[in-house]
Amino acid sequence: MKKIIIPLLFTIVSYSQNDIQKVKVIKDDTQVIKLIDSLGKNEIKIDVLDILFQPALSISYERIIDSYSSFGGDVFINFNNNALEFNWSDRFLISPFYRFYFLNKKDFGGAGFFAELFSKFSFGEHTVEYQYDDYIELSEESTFDIAFGVGIGKKWINKKGITFEIMVGVGRFLMLESTTEDLPFGAIGVYYDSRPEATFKGGISIGKRF
To answer: Sign of the CA dihedral 132, 135, 139, 143?
Structure first.
């Protein structure tokens, strides 16, 4: 019986040791940098929520600087002609950003949990209410505004460079406010209907590192 058990135990231990030796844990920046170089430092991604629920198209480009930071920009195009029912609509938007990644040992670099600083350059339409002595006139007008904000999120990436990202952020518009300057003849006041002071940034994106 001992002649059977002892060789069997030896075989199990040897097999376990071989399995353990196959596991490779990322321990330093050198290994992470090699993985970044193999995957590439450029990334293109699309927000699937905008396509499904707007309809709109949001495309992002991101350039990986190193294991812990990146920069890039988002371009948003709104195809929803009914958006003015909500009294405010971004028709076209450019949003540059800078990210700080917080890696753990299993991340590939340019992935994992991140914090983001972003700005928005927004071209849109809004409802303007001009007040006269005895009536009110509504007008749909084009507008431009700038916002700054912060966000957080997390990105996953596989060995083929396919990325999946969830992000949420909030900012504040800086320029457009109610004013009494440059009023039409006879108007005594103006009101920008449903003017949002805050702006939201977020979504669920799928992309490719190259």
So the answer is: positive
